Amino acid sequence: MSRWTLFILILLLGLGLGLVYGWVINPVSYQDTTLDSLRKDYQTDYTLMVAEVFHQEGDLDWALNRLTLLEDKSPLDSVENALKFAAQAEYTLPDMFLLRDLHNALKELE
Asked: What is the pLDDT of residues 22-70, one digit of tens each?
């Protein structure tokens, strides 16, 4: 048996064993999680996405429903926390303006 044949045979054996292990022996288990378990930067990105949709659509009720998924004290707290983190992480000015606009719209409700 040549070296190349042995190399390809071992490579295929390793690939096959890796697939069996990943698909049969220890497959990935997906679990439901909540948004409040995300890291702060991901929570801020989520809040920014809500602010972008709010800016385009102007639907404050939709934004409130989405922000309550972060499970902060209030949606206003979620946006304030996002603004603080975004300032520390040096988000771009357009992103900061979107968050600020959502913050101002929420403040008008109070």
From this structure: 999 999 887 877 888 889 999 999 999 999 999 999 999 999 999 998 8
Residues 6+ apart with CB under 8 A from 103: 76, 79, 80, 83
Torsion sign across C-alpha atoms 51, 52, 56, 61: negative
Q: Is the pTM of this model over 0.85?
A: no
Query: Which residue type occupies 13?
Result: L
Q: Cβ distance 72 to 80 under 8 Å?
A: no
3 state SS of 34:
coil
Under DSSP, is residue 15 helix (H, G, I), strand (E, B) or coil?
helix
Asked if residues 64 and 75 have their Cβ atoms less than 8 Å apart, the reply is yes
- For the chain, the structural domain boundaries read 1-30, 35-109
Nearest-angstrom CA–CA distance, 51 and 34:
19
State how far the alpha carbon of 52 is from the alpha carbons of 42, 47, 48, 102, in Å: 15, 9, 6, 9
